[in-house]
Amino acid sequence: MTEIEKKGGIESTTTQSGEEQTKKASINFIVKDKSFEKFAMMMILGTTGDAMDTKMNFFFTFWGLNLLKKNFKPKVAGMPAPMKGMAAKMFRKRMKKFGIEDPWAMIKEAVENGNMKLYPCQMTMELMGIKREELLDWVEEPVGAASFLEMSNGGQIVSL
Question: Does position 119 have pLDDT exceeding 90, yes or no?
């Protein structure tokens, strides 16, 4: 029999022999906005977590679900309407100077490594009439809010 204790996102298990094992809980994010800023935060946090071998779950709901659509181009939220697309292009150009050629390729790599999981919200998909085929092929199957909260049990939840 084992005794499990969760503190500060760390799961500590004591086995019958008295040996203690620890495991980091996942960090969980709710993405509710389709802006370039939210996309950049998701990319930076997800790929950094991957490099640190930290499990990260991203739950995309409401307008954030658009970030998972094939060929969607996020725009900078704080700019006047005609400038939003141009500002995002400027950010992408600056990212290239820092060695970030393709942010989506970095995210896909973190997903393929198994440390970053992208979950579309099932109810939002139904409300907005979004079909699974419209989403990137490498995202997880849609889940409901209860399933996301259940898988987040013991881990931190951050809203982006």
Answer: yes
For residues 38, 40, 45 and 49, what is the CA-based torsion angle, rounded to 10 degrees? 130
For residue 123, pLDDT over 80 is answered with yes
SS3 75: coil
pLDDT digits 0-9 by tens, 6-31: 544 455 555 666 666 666 678 898 99
Handedness of CA 32, 36, 38, 44 (dihedral sign): positive
Report the Cα 26 to chain-centroid distance in Å. Answer: 11
CA-CA distance, 121 to 128, in Å (whole number)? 11
Which of 20-24, 79-83, 96-100, 153-157 is the least confident region? 79-83
**Cβ-count burial 56-87 (b if 16+ within 10 Å, e if not):** bbbbbbbebbbbbeeeeebbbeebeeeebeeb
Burial 32-42 (b: 16+ CB within 10 A, else e): bbbbbbbbbbb
Q: Which H/E stretch holds residue 151?
A: helix 145-151
Yes or no: say if 117 and 28 are a contact pair by the CB < 8 Å rule: no
User: Which domains, ranges and CATH numbers included, belong to the chain?
Assistant: 26-159 (3.40.1260.10)
